[in-house]
Amino acid sequence: MIVRRLTPDDANQAQYISSLGWESLYREEDLGNTDRFKNWQKPLKEVSDSRMWGAFTEDGVLSTSFTEIAHQIRFDGDWYRSCAIGGVVTRPDMRRMGAVRECLTTLFDYMRQEGIPFATLLPFDVPFYRKFGYEGIYRICNIMMPVRTLYKYKCDISHISELGGEKTLPELNQFYEETIADMNMALKRDKKLWSGIVNFEPRTNRRYTYIRRDENGVLSGFMTFVQDKIDNAKTMKVVRFVYRDVEALQEMLGFIYTFVAHYENVLFYELPLSLDFYLMMEDYNSIKYEQKICNMLRVGDVEKTLNAKRYPEEEGKFSIKVTDSLDWNCGIYDVSFGAGSCHVTKRSSGDYDLAVDEKSFARIAFGEEAIASDVMRFIPNMEIVSNKATLEKVFIKRPIFHSDFY
Asked: How far is Cα of residue 396 from the mean position of the Cα atoms in its chain?
């Protein structure tokens, strides 16, 4: 099996296996002219650029393809390169032959050579991608309720306005980056990513974005919604809902209430778990709540991750043993830290304070849960051997946000 980047000459084969794998209509198009094929030899920019990879049989038949998307994500207060994959498809008559594993192994090796420590994806099947070291550390919730239940929230409509076109984008992006500064996994956005989140011309696709400003005219929240029909009820589907503080949250809820004559329900779609409406509503029974894994993360370089991590100011040290299907990540890492710096060394044997596999490492490194929390006792393939007090100071719970799609 041969895994390589797809060239413009492979475009028709890629389109053909997509039509087979996704049972969609095959259309002969000039796909070779699109960026994902033209970029096959170019170094990708760090945000939004993409290209395609594929696995070929020995006689040159394309069996599997996927798209690599370059981006940057937040990790403990800074930006780091990351690689997303999407559009993974295999010909039905060539499945279960190890092609996806070969593709990912090749991609992870490429990432290591390029110094890219992280990989993300939006899974069609969580257990499937766990086999390759991905872990679902970003969970989201869908919350639906009658619009009438928001009656107690008031809105000064002078604080609310339509997005106002692309001229608002720099201000919107600044607000976003300030909001997610300490949120792990948050994506750096360019104009291309923003165009999938907000709509600068709502008349074209009935996707509406409104911003909220405070008394000083400073942008402090925004929401994007579309019209939907769920269970035969007209529903405002809020696909983006971001706020700076409690005042902005309450006023934006009040703005939604002004649509009470238009919509029966409001669905807050794919919110971070940090926004718990149960604490804010008087009528709990009217709320429908669904939780699920949204995006998955793969740590491609453990040593680089440990060097990038934010540690306590006071001096300390610990050792962590990592077991991984990527052999370059396996080993025991000795970490010493203090006064805003750290030092990481690696050895092959000896004692250690903590043992994890690659998936548990992603969970504690990114702060899905604090290592001190009760739930971590049930995390598989993680064992605290000693030095518990230091580990509990290092591996704390951190906010995670990664709701963009590629």
From this structure: 19
Query: Taking Cα atoms as reference points, which of 217, 189, 202 lies closest to residue 162?
Result: 202
Nearest CA among 282, 259, 289, 269 for reference residue 147: 259
Residue-wise DSSP of 67-103: EEEEEEEEETTEEEEEEEEEEEEE-GGGTTSSHHHHH
Strands 118-121 and 78-90: parallel
Token match 């291309």: residue?
Answer: 192
Q: Strand, helix or coil at 178?
A: helix
Task: Tell me the two tokens of residue 401.
Answer: 């946000």
**Cα 188 to Cα 185: distance, rounded to the nearest angstrom:** 10
Phi first, then psi: give them for residue 315, nearest 5 degrees: -70, 145
The continuous run of DSSP H or E covering 129 comes out as: helix 126-130
Supply the pTM of this predicted model: 0.89
Residue range 295-308, pLDDT digits in tens: 899 999 999 999 99
- Yes or no: say if 175 and 227 are a contact pair by the CB < 8 Å rule: no
